[in-house]
Amino acid sequence: MKTDNQRAWLLVLPVLVLVAFSAVIPLMTVVNYSVQDTFGNNQFFWAGLEWFRDQLHSERMWDALWRQLAFSGIILAIEVPLGVFVALNMPKKGVWASVVLVLMSLPLLIPWNVVGTIWQIFGRSDIGLLGYTLDQLGVDYNYTQGFYSAWATVIAMDVWHWTSLVALLAYAGLQSIPDAYYQAARIDQASRWAVFRYIELPKMRGVLTIAILLRFMDSFKIYTEPFVLTGGGPGNSTTFLSIDLVKMALGQFDLGPAAAFSLMYFLVIMVISYVFYIVMTNLDKEDGQ
Amino acid sequence: MAKITLQSLAHTYVQDPKGPEDFALQELNHDWNDGEAYALLGPSGCGKSTLLNIISGLLVPSHGRVLFDGQDVTDLPTADRNIAQVFQFPVVYDTMTVRENLAFPLRNRGLPPSDVQDRVERVGRMIDMTDVLDRRAAGLTADAKQKISLGRGMVRDDVNALLFDEPLTVIDPHMKWELRTQLKKLHHDFGHTMIYVTHDQTEALTFADKVVVMYDGRVVQMGTPVELFERPAHTFVGYFIGSPGMNVFDAKIDGTKAQIAGTRFDLKTGYKLKGGATKIGVRPENIRLGDHGLPARVKRVEDVGRHKIVRLDMDGLEVAAVAGEGATIPDGGTHVQFVEGGVNVYENDWRVAAENEQPLTHDKKDAA
Amino acid sequence: MTDQTASAPGAADHLPGDVKVADANARAKPGTRVNGSTVVMVLYLLFLLLPIYWLINMSLKTNAEILGGFSLYPRNLTFSNYETILTDPSWYMGYVNSMIYVVMNTVISISVALPAAYAFSRYNFMGDKHLFFWLLTNRMAPPAVFALPFFQLYSSVGLFDTHIAVALAHCLFNVPLAVWILEGFMRGVPKEIDETAYIDGYSFGGFFVKIFMPLIASGIGVTAFFCFMFSWVELLLSRTLTSVDAKPIAATMTRTVSASGLDWGVLAAAGVLTIVPGALVIFFVRNYIAKGFALGRV
């Protein structure tokens, strides 16, 4: 049981100051921009909620949002089952297990633009293994030109990049199941499916919640990898929320709309984070019983 | 229910064993009679869980065969052996209700729902959980969960044996007695063959008809609690069972005479010895203090309530003796005497029977 | 213990050529399932490693060979791409810059997160739940939202194009993460240990450094790993906040685009070199990776 102690605030203070500096001040700047307009020359005037209204009616933002949701939905639908499946097949111990762990973590530690670069090269039909092979097989594949090729490559890249995270989390959950559960299941003549359904899945529930929500969050703010790979194209077909935002803010310097966009974007993330947090704390409570 | 026979059974976890030291389980031949309750007793790492898992089929032995009623089941998977096993930590399926837990093994075997229903109700009564049948198993206490795992085993009415792997480890002390009593009652009422693994001698001696003591990968003795207590077949059994354990002295034996720590005394009977290292083992309960015998000094006295344990020093050897609660203990020098019939002779740590030894007939049970 | 007695013979004389034994051993290794798992893992690892292999393959070719024809391995093995990078300060300083701010960030994140995580794991205090949640929202914040304000903030305080600017900016997502992971590990340490230490006369500081930190050493290692990882892989903020002096390697890589087209060989070599530090770090924490990814909550 935790004890009440208001002086604990002192221990939290450094974090508070640091994060306030890194988050609150910039966020205030964003709020400031979001309610002002400018004609250049650093002259600003009050615009009220104009930009928010604009953005809410902006087809461009809604398009980016739908693309974003579609992307996050698709990669979750692939990465979670695939990650669990991989985790179920990972070796439990020994040298081989260490080797697999290290190799699997490798994509997670590659700078995100390099991830983009790797797939940029890999997918090119002139010099890339994937593109060349598909080309030889007669598949009409070109990620800089074709809508489907671009989406397929972006998704393949994300699956390549992040499935290991889901797998490692699921693996950690599986590792915590005592042998006796599997032995009892054999004695009870449980099928492989029943073992998964009644032993493995319930024990992985906590870590899978973390995995799903982490993946949702991170995919929701994806920027660098698709930017390097497709630059948001062809056309706008892989322009996700962050890419659109950066285009607007740094490319076109539309500070007001970009700031309003940012805040709404952040709000969506906040709402989802909140759900995440509630789910997590409830899970912890149940485990504590 | 079945008689379980182990034929030349041995097990090693090593791919290419070089000698006996690579074996987790040394070769053994053993029968577990139908309907008897056995305890498998030994310290951690002595191979008792290995043996249990071989019987249940969770482990395939590297050598030898396992027979159920004369039929070879060595290669049969666990599910086909029809045995039930209760583990050290309660295993329940968290997401299911108690009822679904109990029905699980039956449903997996494709029984019709009405039969499942009947049997679950019956087992629910047996383990005294009728009123919580529809609760989720996750929220129950450890002992309730253990009862569910036991129930899952007994719900199949044709189980060959019930195996227990230290099932009371995580149970609160006051619940231990209750569960053990319930187990004995179930054994009495239904007559399953039961094998109960434990490292706790009290649990073993109170639960079982026969206790199998294991040490260092081999069975060193199988017997009733009285046999283990009166005639430990191996110095380890003497030491392991009893509190405090048996006193074991290096001794020279020469005909009917023995010598411990420079003092000779008469054994009153001869032993057929082959010239190995000899030892004499005497239970603390079989030692009396008095005016003659082997000289010793009292070092300290521990009062444990019902009796006193006297720790003595006999020419550098440590001796423990049990004295009655009312007995006066001499302060300092005294003599140690061995009660007649309470002396066991060991050669290379294995017991050697006296030439005139009678089988144990008396039924006194003052072990613990 | 000697064992010449009949009841405990050694089993060694049974070993060779025993048919039954061979059968038993064959059963002990259930063939199909293990093989199935191996096939799955081999396929998955192939999928993971093939693009990386391709990058390495490219980095060992000359541009002429890359563009000249398709080949599965370098026909004319060359290290000239690596030479280009390792002899040109404007290239290799990118690595140095990245390493500097990554290490700075890791040190800062862990040193502020340790006491905070302790407070969250041990005490109730006013607003603790809200504070924890607020910290987490920063982990979830899209860096794109902060890119421009960061640029202005750090420019106005004169920190633009310094290592510390990037290190501080990365604290935005690394500090919450560090608090979160450490809290998970600290919760696993029984509170009685704290109490015993206080009874033994330790001050809070002494207890924390001498007793508590060694207990969660693996947690600290895992946290450091994650701070390192997320700071190392991030590009958007580090690129926005630097121009020359603190420019990270990831941003330097865009240089390969020149008038004559992309210098694929050097680009690939630079990419390979960015993988190396991560691979080294993983190796050291390999035994804790799984638990770490579960944020200490398994």
Automatic annotation (TrEMBL), chain B:
This is ABC transporter ATP-binding protein. It comes from Palleronia pontilimi. The keyword Transmembrane helix does not apply. Residues 4-241 form the ABC transporter domain. One of its GO terms (cellular component) is ATP-binding cassette (ABC) transporter complex, substrate-binding subunit-containing. Pfam families: ABC_tran (PF00005), OB_MalK (PF17912). The lineage of its organism: Bacteria, Pseudomonadati, Pseudomonadota, Alphaproteobacteria, Rhodobacterales. PROSITE patterns: ABC_TRANSPORTER_2. The keyword Transmembrane helix does not apply. Signal peptide: none annotated. Keywords: ATP-binding, Cell membrane, Membrane, Nucleotide-binding, Transport. Belongs to the ABC transporter superfamily.
From TrEMBL, chain C:
It comes from the Bacteria. One of its GO terms (biological process) is transmembrane transport. It is a multi-pass membrane protein. The chain crosses the membrane at residues 37-56, 99-120, 132-151, 163-186, 207-233, 264-285. One of its GO terms (cellular component) is plasma membrane. Keywords: Cell membrane, Membrane, Transmembrane, Transmembrane helix, Transport. It is found in: Cell membrane. InterPro entries: BP-dep_ABC_trans_perm, MetI-like, MetI-like_sf. The keyword Cytoplasm does not apply. Residues 95-285 form the ABC transmembrane type-1 domain. PROSITE patterns: ABC_TM1. Pfam families: BPD_transp_1. Belongs to the binding-protein-dependent transport system permease family. PANTHER family: ABC TRANSPORTER PERMEASE PROTEIN, MALTOSE TRANSPORT SYSTEM PERMEASE-RELATED. This is Carbohydrate ABC transporter permease. It comes from Palleronia pontilimi. The lineage of its organism: Bacteria, Pseudomonadati, Pseudomonadota, Alphaproteobacteria, Rhodobacterales.
